[in-house]
């Protein structure tokens, strides 16, 4: 079994910051692939450990914060903030992407994600301009 997502067209006003692959080409993609076979949590332990500890894992190399909203989604990966507004106009999603300055991080976490930090935020990012 699989779950497919049919994408609306996307409008990305600041294309120079975008690193999306196939923004216009990808119309439909598989989101989940699964069977009806029962699984035990132990079957996922090795993969979960790898994602949390491997030096090349996105979850180790970048700070990640995401939030689903009623009309879209926000994601902060490293210094890259992506905001998508679903069905912005004419069955098209608006995708806004920008690279934040260090001094914008705490304010962005507070205002966009409702997160207030006790200590200064130090993003983890092996590359300032990422492909994610």
From TrEMBL:
Report the EC number(s), separated by commas if there are several: 2.3.1.5
Keywords, A to Z, come to: Acyltransferase, Transferase
The UniProt entry, under InterPro entries, shows: Arylamine_N-AcTrfase, Arylamine_NAT_domain_sf, Papain-like_cys_pep_sf
GO MF term set: arylamine N-acetyltransferase activity
Question: How would you classify this enzyme at the top EC level?
Answer: transferase
Short name of any one Pfam family annotated for the protein: Acetyltransf_2
UniProt record similarity statement: Belongs to the arylamine N-acetyltransferase family.
What name goes with this protein?
arylamine N-acetyltransferase
At the highest ranks, the source species' classification is:
Eukaryota, Metazoa, Chordata, Craniata, Vertebrata
